[in-house]
Design brief:
Two copies of one chain form a homodimer. Chain A is an alpha/beta fold and 429 residues long. The first copy, chain A, folds into two domains: 240 residues, 3-Layer(aba) Sandwich (Aldehyde Dehydrogenase, Chain A, domain 1); 144 residues, Aldehyde Dehydrogenase, Chain A, domain 2, CATH 3.40.309.10. In chain A, 42% of the residues lie in helices and 21% in strands. Chain A has 14 helices and 16 strands. Chain A starts with 15 loop residues before the first helix and ends with a strand. The interface between A and B is large, with 67 and 67 residues.
């Protein structure tokens, strides 16, 4: 990308298409080099970037301080996400080293077998090409997303929130230096350096340069990307997660899983938003659970039968069953049985993460098969639905789609598989 | 779908959106039932449909005769694809039985392993949901596509060429009867019964009902689907396949693979369209190859160095390297070496199927890794790139995309994987 195509400011004459074309072309060219890069080159780059970030603490913190000063007056939670400190910078570097230690997915050949014709066929894992990531104010995503794309042999185009522009530019400088030292093209990771919003539109139209877009952020961002993107999107919209306490649940496990799924953290997409309880076990399990939630300060909204158990439960409206509270609020519904629970999840759920608590093998087997969510669980907290917990090392996002990648998306989700055929002069007859 | 929403004719007042909405809603409802269907129910339906088709030979042939009569005056090759006879009907039934015998992909659980927290995580294969297939005049695709969608636990909406309307309706009747007898919803396979072209547009917009679209046909159909579809598309555009005879190739294997890749069949997408030969081996391999191609009636278009070898080779123009001839025409180019060949394929290829002939392990290893095509081969004919040859049993199409499915797409390409988590009351700390 030529310096002239770049701009740190927005202007009326800004040509977003030309800007993205220059970036896209450089990304496409570097993607070919990245696909050929050896595991040791990629790891050297990751470790080099980690070192650069640690050695550039002052520059990054000073850029971040400027971003934070410019964000004065914005929402407190927003500013907290934007803020970097020594600890967060160390965590960024550590995240890069963790990804360096992950097995290289590229070139992995599986299912190689002989066919009756004598040819061997198998599948080899390859990069997707150019990955675009659009995110909001957290500057650490710049390092995380770059590292995942790079390790999976892709070229990345990153677009962070405009409020984090200077922080991201400081991190981008470390990424370029690390790539360069490892002998990899600096354009393998490009961070958009304009606050002009039209650049996002141009990026979403650039299907000749960008193979997949990953939006990370609030629903309005995701919806915009879904509406405008001319390439495939890896995204998740809602996390309306359920725990269903089945009739044959162990009371202790039910209590532990239901409490943990709600209260371990409120603002995460894998937090339970609705608790379903089978009618026959509700009298045994709900009083102690309601008490625990109230002690934890969770507001409860229940079906009439739940409200009848404890006066601290307020009546739930129809909208509550659809709601992703992301807050200390929980909807509770007593259902007849497993079928009723599966129907409720099908109707109101968001296909993110749903868990059953039961000791009945048949009920567990049916729930695991029939509930069509990206993660389906048996006797485990919904809070486990996470790339780190699943052993992916890191995740670029969580997908609630079924096409290509589903659930937490790690390195593998940023790759594809090609067929390889090995013969010895074999021909088709 | 209500009968009133159906029409066998086109009319000015035809409401394509309402038509597709009725079909889509029925497809969505039946998809849930199909996802739960047991392997034996699905196989019973497939075998039942095969039997119905055999028992309805007369009705199918008579409907087909009417379609063929209506198509009088159309292109001969077109009418041949439209035509059904006893043999083709038997082949359709046999295809259904082959798919019944394939392993059921749904519910397959893989990679189940323990995490340090004590939970087990794994992946379970699940249907995609509703699959739309848009194809041209071959009526046998109706049975093939229905069978693959059905076995993979999906609901299907099929739109065949309008010239095959009556043939497809006769086959659809057998499919509905087979589904019904097996206790599965008849709406699990719906064949559009209107020739109104606006129905295709409505289908391509119906992302709330259709999870993936598979177009099968000529480039204009594929381009229309790519432009208009509001859901993911599994498609392939071009098959500009290459064979590269590397410097260290065995002459006999090179001859066999190069001849077979071109002459075994001319009109298929996995037929070689350009032959690349390393300069040092060109004098040893090209004269006999050129002779063989000329004997087979293949028109040759070569680079200057190739033309200099044999006067029967005409000069190739730049466009020839991009061309998918689908005909007895072959472009031949002498390249310097492996790098030159890989560059040529990257520049002119269509990422479909490319093969290297060599005895050099290093060259083979590099070609397999670095050529970014859906099938990459070593010492084997490009004609092997096919779902049956790869052991998929059947294919719904070949994908030259990298997202989700690549290369021949069989049952697995019509599925997704969800995560399953099994604990014993495990919570996240």
């Amino acid at each position: 990308m030529s310096e002239s195509a770049k701009t740190l400011t927005s202007s009326a004459e800004f040509d977003s298409t030309a800007y993205i074309d220059a970036i896209g072309e450089a990304a496409r060219t570097s993607a070919a080099a990245m696909a050929r890069a050896s595991t040791s080159e990629k790891n050297a780059a990751l470790i080099g970037i980690a070192r650069k970030i640690e050695n550039s603490r002052e520059a990054i913190l000073s850029a971040n301080a400027e971003d934070v000063a410019n964000a004065a007056g914005l929402d407190k939670a927003f500013v907290d996400r934007l803020l970097l400190d020594e600890k967060r910078i160390s965590a960024m570097a550590e995240g890069l080293r963790i990804i360096a230690e992950l097995a290289d997915p590229i070139g992995e050949t599986t299912e190689l077998c002989y066919r009756p014709t004598g040819i061997q066929i198998g599948k080899m894992r390859v990069p997707l090409g150019v990955v675009g990531v659009i995110y909001e104010s957290r500057p650490n995503v710049t390092a995380d997303a770059a590292a995942l794309c790079l390790k999976a042999g892709n070229s990345a185009i990153l677009r962070g929130g405009s409020e984090a522009l200077l922080s991201n530019a400081a991190i981008a400088k470390c990424i370029r230096a690390g790539l360069d030292e490892a002998g990899l093209p600096q354009a393998a990771v490009q961070v958009l350096d304009t606050i002009d919003r039209s650049a996002v539109g141009a990026l979403l139209r650039a299907h000749e340069w960008v193979d997949v877009i990953v939006p990370r952020g609030g629903k309005s961002l995701i919806r915009r990307v879904m509406d405008e993107a001319k390439m495939p999107v890896i995204k998740h919209l809602d996390g309306v997660c359920h725990v269903f306490i089945e009739e044959h649940a162990d009371l202790k496990k039910a209590f532990d899983v239901a409490v943990n799924s709600k209260t371990q953290r409120y603002g995460t997409c894998n937090t339970m938003e609705t608790l379903l309880v089978a009618d026959p076990i509700s009298a045994a399990v709900l009083p102690s659970l309601i008490h625990a939630y109230c002690e934890a300060g969770v507001e409860l909204r229940g079906c009439p039968a739940t409200c009848a158990i404890d006066s601290r439960v307020n009546p739930a409206a129809e909208e509550d069953w659809f709601e992703e509270y992301l807050a200390p609020i929980l909807a509770i519904r007593i259902v007849d049985d497993l079928d009723d629970a599966i129907d409720h999840i099908r109707r109101y759920g968001s296909q993110h993460t749903d868990s059953i608590v039961t000791e009945d093998l048949g009920a567990g087997r049916r729930f695991l098969s029939e509930v069509d969510s990206s993660s389906v669980m048996l006797n485990a907290s919904t809070r486990f639905a996470d790339g780190f917990e699943y052993g992916l090392g890191a995740e670029i996002g969580i997908s609630t789609d079924k096409f290509h990648a589903r659930g937490p998306v790690g390195l593998t989700g940023l790759t594809s598989q090609k067929w390889i055929v090995i013969g010895d002069g074999h021909v088709r007859t």
